[in-house]
Amino acid sequence: MEIWVNPACSKSRSALRLLDEADATYTVRNYLADAPGAGEIRELLGRLGLEPWDITRLQEPAAAELGLAGRPRDADARERWIAALAERPELIQRPIITADDGTAVVARTEEAVRDALGRR
């Protein structure tokens, strides 16, 4: 199990605390310092069963700079969204837990973290 975190994010810290309380074995990835490439983001989206716009933090200043709110959300625009996430990883929703069973969850709630723990 791996958890993608922003150490400054309270949701990330909360998810880490829950994993520790459950004695889970996991690795931590600060995805701002160790940014995922486009291929990794595509793989992650497949594991999540989501599209790139579903995991984009549109309230971030970088989203406004890139005009993401007005960008189409369709198959033709998908690669542009992925490129934006790879270029500006702060736009990726956090935390994200990749489970050993090949799935992943956006772990912003306690329930989502517990769901990921059940997927070990």
Automatic annotation (TrEMBL):
**Which InterPro entries does the record match to this protein?**
Arsenate_reductase-like, Thioredoxin-like_sf
Species the sequence originates in:
Streptomyces yaizuensis
Q: What is this protein called?
A: Arsenate reductase family protein
Q: Tell me the Pfam families matching this sequence.
A: ArsC
Q: What family is this? A: Belongs to the ArsC family.
